[in-house]
Amino acid sequence: MKDVSIIIVNWNTREFLDACLGSLRASSAALDLEILVVDNASSDGSQEMVRVKYPEVVLIENRENLGFAKANNIGLRQATGRYLALINSDVTAPAGCLPSIVEYMDRASEVGMLGPKMLTPSGAWGPSSMRRPTLAIWAVHAFGLAGVLPAYSLHMEKFDHERTQPVDVLNGWFWVVRGEAYRQVGGLDERFFMYGEDIDWCHRYADAGWEVVYFAGAEATHYGGGSSKRAPVRFYVEMQRANLQYWQLHHGRLSQVAYLALVALHQSFRAAGYSLQYLLRPAGREESGFKVARSVACLRWLAGGVNPAVKSRAQGSAKHA
Questions:
Q1: Which of 148, 150, 37, 33 minimizes the C-alpha distance to 87?
Q2: CA nearest 14: which of 73, 76, 59, 70?
Q3: Which residue in 141, 207, 228, 289 is a FRET match for 196, CA 20 to 30 A apart?
Q4: Is the CB of residue 259 less than 8 Å from the CB of residue 312?
C-alpha cells in the first residue's frame, strides 16, 4: 500500500499543473507516493505535458468537464494510499510538506482530515480555514460586521496560523484524509460542481466523529483561481449556487429563505457600493465595474428562481460516491 495517493483535478491549467507536479516529485524520496491527475477535458495541452514530463503519473482523461467533486471522486476510487491527498493544480508543495503531514497523522489517530498552512505567492498567510456557516455568521458577513464581531467572522480574519488546531472547515485547496475515514464518510457530494463541497465534506467528517484539523507544521503555496480565472463572473455565480446547495442539504426551509434574503441584501449592498465607487473614482473603474457586474449577475440568478429540488439530508439520505 502506498503512503499517500495524491489526486489532482485539472482543467486548462497546464503551467500551474507542471509546477505542482514538479514540486511533488521532491517528496517521493521520503514517501511512497501515487499521483493521479484527473483531467476534465482540457484543451491547453495539459494531457500531453503530463505524458511527456511525468510518465510516473497516472493520467485519467475525462471526455468532458465533470466538475471538481465528480473528478476527485474518480481519482479517489482508484487511489490505493493509506492517506489520500486532494491538491489543487495551482499549488506547489515543498519537499517536507507531505512527510510532515504523514508523521503527524500517524501519531494523531483521531484526525480524519487535515490541511496545511496556506501561503500566497507573496509569502503571506492565505485563508486555510473558515467557520461553518450559520445564519448569524452569514448575517455578520452580509452586513460587513466581521471587524466588530470577530467571533462571528466567516473567514476568521484573526485566526492564529501558527497553532495546530481543530477547525470547522478546511478550504478545498489541499486536503489530506485518512483512508479509514474516507471509507466511512464517502467521497465528495457530486451535486456540487466546483464550490461548496469543502464545507459539506468537512461537515460530514465532523458528524462521523473525526477531527478536522488545521496543521501549522506544514505549508504550501496556493496561486489561486487557476481554473476559475478563465470566467470569473460565471464562477462567482457558481459559488453562490453552491452555497445555496449546502444550505439546502443541511438546513430547513425557513433557514433557506432567511439565507436567500441575506444573500440578496449582501449583493444589493455590494452592487450599490461599487456603483458609487465607479462614479467617484475614475481611476478604479475597471475593478469596481467588474465587481458591480458580479453582484448584478448574482441578483439576476436569484431573481430567476433557484432550484428547490436539492433535499436536506434531514429529509432524505444522500448517496456519496
A1: 37
A2: 59
A3: 289
A4: no
4-126+161-226 is classed in which CATH architecture?
Alpha-Beta Complex (3.90)
Could you tell me whether strands 58-62 and 33-40 are parallel, antiparallel, or unpaired per DSSP bridges? parallel
pTM score > 0.85 for this model? Answer: no
What would the pLDDT profile of 12-68 be if each residue is shown by its tens digit?
A: 999 999 999 999 988 878 899 999 999 999 999 999 999 999 999 999 999 999 989
Cβ atoms 178, 83 nearer than 8 A: yes
H-helix segments, the chain: 14-25, 46-53, 68-78, 97-107, 135-142, 179-185, 197-207, 232-250, 253-280, 285-303
At 157, list the grid cell: 480574519
- Segments making up each domain of the chain, as ranges: 4-126+161-226, 229-303
